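Forwarding the complex inputs:
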Amino acid sequence: QQPVQSPQAVILREGEDAVINCSSSKALYSVHWYRQKHGEAPVFLMILLKGGEQKGHDKISASFNEKKQQSSLYLTASQLSYSGTYFCGTEGKTSYDKVIFGPGTSLSVIP
Amino acid sequence: EAGVTQFPSHSVIEKGQTVTLRCDPISGHDNLYWYRRVMGKEIKFLLHFVKESKQDESGMPNNRFLAERTGGTYSTLKVQPAELEDSGVYFCASSQPSGTGYNSPLHFGNGTRLTVT
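Prediction (whole assembly, two chains):
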């Protein structure tokens, strides 16, 4: 089952913050986050595993609440380079399960 | 390390023709996935190989699509005969299972943009 993402799209000015949410009706074992710029390959940002941990990468961080079956991606002090479509991906129990992606959130950062 | 490579980068074919897409994963990656993105929509799962075996092909649209992975190395995705709705960007991704028991990051290729006219 495909995870749900919100919002569908967001426009930010440089320096503003944004939160992208990902939720699933199925039990989540791990959540992946990727960013795709127009015409390019999706690029891995981070994976969060069961345990409610929060991870960070530069000014982008994420949390994973397994009880609520939700993950959130936090972008702080956004830069122009953050523009793109953000996808969350959820996977099953084993290391051989597929990753299913949400519909994506289009993020545009303007000067 | 070399990344995931896909060939061709673009393909324009007529309805009813055949097209074969190729993916070379990162060396040593057991997991190989095919995904498709249509007109800015979601990245839709098609198929998952573990080495040379099809682990999950539940996303394959119909029997016009055939995927193979020779000797657990490169993979091909053949569409025969192509229909208009097959247009989109086909991505290949590979990963190596991590010691945690969950998948490690997916490494995507640049995709093949298929246009069926």
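Chain A touches chain B through 28 residues (CB under 8 Å).
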